[in-house]
Design goal:
By secondary structure, this protein is of the alpha+beta class. Among the domains are: 77 residues, 2-Layer Sandwich (Dna Ligase, domain 1), CATH 3.30.1490.110; 155 residues, Nucleotidyltransferase, domain 5 (2-Layer Sandwich), CATH 3.30.420. 36% of the residues lie in helices and 28% in strands. It has 13 helices and 18 strands. The strands form 5 sheets. The protein has a 5-stranded mixed beta sheet, sandwiched between helices. The protein has a 5-stranded mixed beta sheet with strand order 14-13-12-17-18, with helices on both faces. A 4-stranded antiparallel beta sheet has the order 7-10-8-9.
Length: 425
């Protein structure tokens, strides 16, 4: 490793956010990550994580990159890119191989072959594998092994969580990024990046659910024993709350958004029933009309409860309903709405807190904003990947779809970058 820049590019449905981090060497010869800054621009051409207009998406990404380059005064050439959307799915798989050495000594090559066997287990033609995340190894029937390299055995098994996306979705998004002239170092499933930014290793060990409340989608990543247990993206987000307010009050979406940001509260019980009214005309309504804030909060609460009920259904699918000791960590722009944590505690029956990044920065008010958690997490993800590769770690804990520097990850990483270079005009 050497001192250089790391860039995280979060492609959201409402905003595109870029975070730039710098890797520097301390006096005691340790590499540390420091966030130089982050920017956001309105997103166009992306809906629910999918590219709906290639030209609009390219234009939006270019605008965000230009702002980031002006902020730090340096050109950006490569980024770790977050990918989301309802077409991204997770699947459990198992890989089984025989140990190659006659003395039974397990090497990193054996681990690579086991992971490759797991990849081959689920690899349909219309899906692109983004991550192969080992959950645990088994050596000759001994379960619960975290790192088998150096151990003795004959049969090596690995249980993995495979994150894969629809090939057309991945290609369109990758093509849009390449069209801006930016190179892709890795594609990362967005909720995994957000979890990297807002949770600790202790929380992931105990069991935690990270909820990324976006504009058009809500993504979740559930961890247990330090490994990813389940991840999903739900096609519902904070824009649906805005739409409900617009319909309920018969006002425009812009007026509904202003009212939501100014007076919105997800927990109606905390809002007085009488006395607090607003005039819709003052916030963009066509005519003067007094509306109680309690009524607005009831509209918001109904939709927020629906979102959390869908999250609870995902927890129920994996038998973790009400059973995560570290509870729920809320992040994303939608989590800034007042009362979101209170409703989550009631509906999900788990402890809940707003997530915040602890990355050092000269712009802490921006970097610690929940809206930037995915972009910050992408930078952190890239930094951790480089540290593992520099340290020569044998276990590829997080393997993505981009190019990698170690031979081990190259053997099993999906060659997305090579495939999509052909799209560059």
């Amino acid at each position: 490793m050497k001192e250089h820049l790391l860039v995280g590019l979060d492609l959201g449905s409402s905003h595109i956010r870029v975070c730039v981090g710098q890797v520097s060497l301390t006096q005691d010869k340790r590499f540390v990550l420091h966030a130089l800054g982050a920017v956001e621009t309105l997103s166009a051409g992306i809906s629910k994580g999918n590219v709906t207009s290639l030209e609009d998406t390219v234009s939006s990404i270019s605008t965000a990159l230009e702002q980031a380059e002006r902020l730090i005064g340096l050109p950006l050439s490569e980024a770790t890119v977050g990918i989301g959307g309802v077409t991204i799915t997770t699947t459990q798989a198992k890989g089984v191989v025989g140990v190659s050495r006659s003395d039974g000594d397990i090497r990193s090559e054996d681990v690579a072959r086991a992971l490759e066997a797991a990849r081959a287990y689920v690899n349909p033609a219309n899906q692109e594998i983004l991550h192969v995340l080992p959950r645990g190894f088994t050596v000759d029937g001994q379960h619960g092994i975290k790192d088998p390299v150096g151990m003795q055995g004959i049969r090596l098994e690995v249980d993995v969580q495979i994150v894969q996306g629809l090939s057309s979705h991945v290609r369109n998004l990758t093509k849009a990024v390449f069209r801006t002239g930016l190179d892709i170092s890795e594609l990362v499933y967005s909720p995994l990046a957000a979890a990297e930014a807002v949770t600790t290793s202790r929380e992931r060990e105990l069991g935690v659910c990270v909820l990324v409340l976006g504009a058009a989608t809500t993504s979740l990543a559930i961890y247990e024993d330090g490994e990813l247990l389940h991840a999903a993206t739900l096609p519902i987000g904070s824009d649906h709350i805005t739409s409900d307010i617009a319909i309920g009050l018969r006002i425009s979406l812009d007026a509904a958004e202003r009212i939501k940001r100014t007076f919105g509260h997800a927990n109606a019980e905390t809002v007085p029933k009488k006395g607090d009214d607003i005039d819709l005309q003052e916030y963009g309504g066509e005519q003067s009309e007094l509306v109680p804030l309690r009524y607005i909060s009831e509209i918001i609460e109904a939709r927020v409860e629906e979102i959390y009920e869908k999250v609870d259904a995902e927890l129920k699918r994996i038998d973790r309903e009400g059973m995560l000791p570290a509870g729920i960590v809320l992040t994303g722009g939608g989590s800034k709405l007042a009362g979101m944590a209170d409703v989550a505690k009631r509906v999900l029956r788990l402890p809940c807190a707003l997530g915040a990044t602890n990355l050092q920065s000269s712009m802490p008010e921006v970097v610690q904003d929940p809206s930037y958690s995915t972009a910050v997490g992408l930078v952190t993800w890239a930094f951790e990947r480089e540290r593992r590769e520099e340290g020569g770690g044998s276990r590829p804990m997080k393997m993505g779809g981009g190019k990698s520097k170690t031979e081990l990850i190259n053997k099993i990483g999906s060659p997305i970058k090579k495939i999509f270079k052909s799209f560059i005009p």
